[in-house]
Specification:
- The chain is α+β, with helices and mostly antiparallel strands.
- It has a single domain, classed as 4-Layer Sandwich (Phosphatase 2c, domain 1), CATH 3.60.40.
- The strands form 2 sheets. It has a 6-stranded antiparallel sheet with strand order 1-2-12-11-7-8. Strands 3, 4, 5, 6, 9 and 10 form a 6-stranded antiparallel sheet that branches.
- Strand 1 and strand 2 form a beta hairpin.
- The two termini are 14 Å apart.
Length: 269
């Protein structure tokens, strides 16, 4: 049996799986925790690599490593927005440097979504279409901003959300951490984190496969580690078309809530 990580007042769980159709896992994630005596909040990171078997795996790994390199140097008081910008810039520089050394990696890239989790707020960054949700009340609230062609069109009023979901260009990104891109423009946000909220970070192998109602239900019903594993199982049951990553976090005192039918909670088992 696997258990959630306990840090300060939080429980955190994570799961990453290759899925049913891909031969390699180009996703990477990490739950970065402070060393004893360093009063900085945990940093949760999900990266979804692109560029073929070797390129995608390398890109997502470099992104997570770059976030870790910045994180271990942080000291209180934390300037979360500045730290997240540094993480993104370090990641982008790492991809460009690696591609300069190895021409076979020149087409690699990665999305990233990451968040500092503090008692009363979440400080988040994303590049690309990996997502962050706050699950509050009866629905998931997406706090990240998809940097994709279809969502750019939807925000401009040129596509409806339903058209965007079905469009043949729905996987085309308008921004990413890329060896071929000279600069990168991340999205930074700060959101209130209420006592009963749940934070979910995930790649499109999860949010693009199962409905948001199931994201909400699984995260609410189970302890964070079991919830992350259940979400991966649900995505695999729905075809597992892509690599799947999920990080789930909530306050320790928050109780799980029975929401799912037995046939749904047994998915993938």
């Amino acid at each position: 049996m696997s258990f959630s990580t306990i840090i300060n007042d939080f429980l955190i769980g994570s799961a990453c799986d290759v899925g049913k159709k891909r031969k390699s896992n180009q996703d990477a994630l990490d739950v970065l925790l402070p060393e004893a005596g360093i009063d900085v909040p945990p940093l949760l990171v999900v990266a979804d690599g692109m560029g073929g078997h070797n390129g995608g795996e390398t890109a997502s790994r470099l992104v997570v490593e770059a976030f870790r390199e910045v994180y271990v140097q942080l000291q209180p008081p934390l300037d979360a927005a500045r730290a997240l910008k540094m993480c993104v810039q370090r990641s982008h520089e790492a991809l460009r440097a690696q591609a300069a050394e190895d021409s076979s990696l020149k087409g690699m890239g990665s999305t990233v979504v990451a968040a500092f989790l503090q008692n009363d707020r979440v400080d988040m960054v994303n590049v690309g279409d990996s997502r962050a949700y706050i699950l509050r009340g009866g629905e998931p609230i997406q706090i990240s901003t998809d940097q994709s062609w279809v969502m750019d069109m939807a925000r401009a009023g040129k596509l409806t959300l339903e058209q965007a979901r079905r469009h043949h260009k729905r996987n085309r990104l308008s921004m990413s951490l890329s060896a071929n891109r000279p600069t990168v423009t991340p999205v930074l946000k700060q959101e209130v984190f209420q006592p009963d909220d749940i934070l979910l970070l995930c790649s499109d192998g999860l949010w693009g496969v199962i409905p948001e109602s199931l994201l909400w239900a699984a995260a609410n019903e189970f302890e964070p580690q079991e919830a992350a594993e259940k979400l991966v199982a649900l995505a695999n049951q729905s075809g597992g078309l892509d690599n799947i990553s999920a990080i789930v976090a909530r306050k320790r005192e928050r109780q799980a809530v029975k929401t799912m039918q037995d046939d749904a909670t047994d998915a993938g088992e």
